[in-house]
Design goal:
By secondary structure, the protein is of the alpha/beta class. It is built from 7 helices and 28 strands.
């Protein structure tokens, strides 16, 4: 037991075998969820002209306070036809082009409008309520750095900066295969000894969320011929993930058949609970993960090892899971030999995040796990983490 790899060491071995995938050009409208392979730069200044931050009146600050005639109206997209002369004002909408000659905008609530004049009794400094050209970003400046996964904010920023297409790494092709003669699809009547197959779908959803293009293969029975056929198909992907069949029982065929198919096993078994009998290997450029059949063990293995590999294949700058710091809501006993990842529920009080362990921590209890939104990390060692003490946790 003491000689087992720590999960951190296992993660390092996985990332050592990752080779970032090739690059392709992706239209900005299709780029959400993709990872940039090169910095994306603004094609224009943003804003591309001095613009008004308020509905109000464009003026020269040196004319204030005073009564000024309103000589024009400026709407967004409809600039003034001439510069602003001394002693004049132009009505302007938010986002409108501040006309040449004007250097301030007076909000509409700060003026008294009478006939075609505005009375402004306050002073406003030059630059007041004016968004300068390039105040957000200048043309040629990096908007989003390489290695960033694009979300709604990043896509919006790139579109606003005139970026029509970006260079992204390919999405990893991931094959997911659940094994076990007892597995049948949900919705069919259960016969004696059968259970519904859930791991494959759970893993497929988790890995698609990490940016993968996932193919969920049909569950395979505990038969060598069936295993060989399914595994050969899965080994065509960038990543093959199996669930079940990686322990030492007579029906655990995955590792042996994979070895016959040329998979070089890098490690088997990690000092983590749940999920000890996880395996990892490679064949050419295919990364091969064998996760335990117990669903929570599969979930933990996916979070710790498979998702980081999928992120790293895309060139994500920080592919490892990000642990946060909270306070234990109850005492957590430490295991002398293995790190434990305890299903938990988080809440927030005036002192920060409380991480409350859930009842039912057995690795087969996937329905109990559905109530969890975090995994509390209990490091291997003696003693316990007392209630109220600091504890790291991983959000689910």
């Amino acid at each position: 037991m003491a000689d087992l790899l720590t999960f951190e060491a296992a993660q390092a071995l996985v990332l050592e075998r990752v080779r970032v995938l090739p690059v392709e050009t992706v239209a900005i409208a299709d780029a959400a969820g993709r990872v940039l392979a090169a910095p994306a730069r603004a094609t224009a200044d943003l804003p591309p002209f001095p613009s008004s931050a308020m509905d109000g009146y464009a003026v020269r600050a040196s004319d204030l306070p005073g009564v000024l005639p309103v000589v024009a109206g400026i709407a967004a997209g409809s600039p003034a036809e001439r510069p602003l002369a001394a002693g004049e004002a132009m009505a302007i909408s938010t986002g409108g082009v501040v006309p040449e000659g004007a250097d301030a905008v007076v909000p509409i609530e700060a003026v008294v409008h009478s006939d075609n004049n505005v009375e402004i009794s306050e002073r406003f400094d030059a630059g007041a309520h004016v968004r300068p050209r390039g105040g957000d970003v200048g043309a040629g400046t990096v908007v989003v750095a390489a290695g960033v996964r694009l979300g709604a904010t990043q896509v919006g920023a790139l579109a606003a900066a005139g970026v029509a297409a970006v260079e992204c790494t390919h999405r990893p092709r991931v094959a997911v295969l659940a094994t076990g003669s007892e597995l049948i699809p949900p919705g069919r009547p259960l016969a004696a000894g059968q259970v519904y197959e859930a791991n494959g779908l759970m893993l497929a959803v988790a890995l698609a969320d990490a940016g993968a293009d996932v193919e969920q293969l049909p569950a395979v029975a505990d038969d060598e011929v069936a295993h060989r056929s399914a595994l050969e198909r899965g080994l065509d992907a960038d990543v093959l993930v199996t669930s079940g069949g990686v322990s030492v029982g007579p029906h655990d065929l995955v590792r042996r058949v994979e070895a016959e198919l040329g998979v070089e096993e890098v490690f088997w078994q990690v000092a983590v609970k749940p999920g000890k009998p996880v395996s990892f290997g490679v064949r050419a450029h295919t990364l091969v993960f064998g996760l335990p059949g117990n669903p929570v063990s599969s979930l933990v293995g996916c979070e710790l090892f498979v998702k980081p590999a999928v992120r790293a294949l895309q060139g994500l700058a920080d592919p490892l899971p990000r642990f946060e710091l909270g306070r234990a809501g109850a005492t957590l006993r430490r295991n002398p030999h293995r790190d434990e990842l305890v299903r938990a529920r988080t809440s927030v009080d005036d002192r920060g995040v409380v991480v409350q362990p859930l009842t039912g921590q057995e690795s087969h209890m996937i329905v109990r796990a559905a109530a969890a939104d975090a995994l509390a990390h209990v490091p291997r060692g003696e003693g316990e983490i007392a209630a109220g003490s600091a504890v790291r946790f991983l959000r689910l």
